[in-house]
Automatic annotation (TrEMBL):
InterPro entries: L-lactate/malate_DH, Lactate/malate_DH_C, Lactate/malate_DH_N, Lactate_DH/Glyco_Ohase_4_C, NAD(P)-bd_dom_sf, UBQ-conjugating_enzyme/RWD, UEV_N
Gene: Uevld
Superkingdom, taxonomy of origin: Eukaryota
Record GO biological process: lactate metabolic process; protein transport
Domain named UEV: residues: 1-131
Name of the protein: UEVLD enzyme
N-terminal signal peptide: none
Pfam families for this protein: Ldh_1_C, Ldh_1_N, UEV
Catalytic activity: (S)-lactate + NAD(+) = pyruvate + NADH + H(+)
Gene Ontology molecular functions: L-lactate dehydrogenase (NAD+) activity
Organism per entry: Atlantisia rogersi (Inaccessible Island rail)
Lineage: Eukaryota, Metazoa, Chordata, Craniata, Vertebrata
Function: Interconverts simultaneously and stereospecifically pyruvate and lactate with concomitant interconversion of NADH and NAD(+).
Amino acid sequence: QYKFRDLTVEEVKNVSKIYPNFTFSMNTYTFKDGSQKDLLNFSGTVPVKYGNSYNIPIHLWILDSYPFAPPICFLKPTVNMGISVGKHVDAHGRIYLPYLQNWSHPKSTVIGLIKEMIAKFEEELPLYSLSSSDAARQSELLSYIAKITEGETDMKSKSKIGGGKTEGCFNKITVVGAGDLGIACVLAVAAKGAADKVVLLDLSEGAAKGGTMDFEIFALPNVEISKDFSASADSKVVILTVNSLGNAQTYLDVIQSNVDLFRGIVPAISHYSQNTVLLVASHPVEIMTYVSWKLSAFPKSRVIGVGANLDTERFHHILANLLKAQVLAKDAWIIGEQGEDKVLSWTGCHLVTNQREAMAACNSRENVANRAMEVLKGKGQRSWSVGLSVADLTDSILKDKRKVHSVSTLAKGCCNINSEVFLSLPCTLGTSGVIETVKLEEDPLVQEKLQSSAGSLHDLQQQLKL
């Protein structure tokens, strides 16, 4: 069942050489949504010096998408050991490390993971010795942990007892990234009311900070915060908001840093939600949507960038409400790249009786559109405004509205573009993502601008290491 069996077998051999005490077996792992899968697991001890020398027992589960998805890691304490909950370990013994968060093949390996695990455990010992009076309580905890990792979860038990609808039947969405944009998306989606459950996947190192801590304090119904990729399982829509905050010097370095970050995220997300629609809000949106498409191996219809949806909705509002041009608003679209290179285009085809009327109508339309573009200038995209736009797109997808939005989609074949690049185009959205791309009026100037954008994006993509 392993997609990359040879690489996985090679990893087993490497671990055996350095850590001969490790044993390997195939066992059933139960995910948080109750689904089960037979997975390879490593079990053994790692040497840790914390004043004295200790052998810390660990248990690593290797996903069938390895090496593109990181292992799932647990402590495996005996009855005489208690778990020290800290920055890298939760109460159930689940291990969280920067190495897991930044997992990227071929740079990341199980050997490298274990080395970082040892280094972090030497800073903060994850286990302590229990007194005999505490050993009985510890055995109950270990029994609970065994249910999580080896066969049965609370969620699964509840679904059997209650007989209600299962997780997979919900309109569940996941927001990846707990920065300002991620939190804005959670709040906007929750306020929209389209999703039955919203999961905020916080991939930052350490305990909850800032907004995520506030979420925990002022609990919102149907909002869950997790650091565990499996919490995203069976999401109908996954919204990617993460951006690398590295010390990159050039624009290409910044993008490559984001690509490296996505290599550790998108395959794992794709593993847990194989039928999801990926909605990309990370920057630069056109390139990161392309990267998400490549890393997920999803069909092009199910990988969408937020693109020019916000600009288009603002443009429609200005035309219809400020300039009282409701008819024009229906046909006007901001397309192409986000930012200064965006282009105004039209989908309507108005019939007129003669050429003079056609020219007059065209001039009138352009004059109104230019006034609207002037009003639109200078309106920045705050996190909360992008969050509202993301909620709008999510609502159209979850409710199968068949509404047209200007979103980043694969533009190959449009306007004589022959390269695999993503640009904003008017698209009808439904539960399966992009249902169709709406035909634009033929305008040589618009086509020239789109081809120019496609060329520059393609050149940049060719320099990236995927």
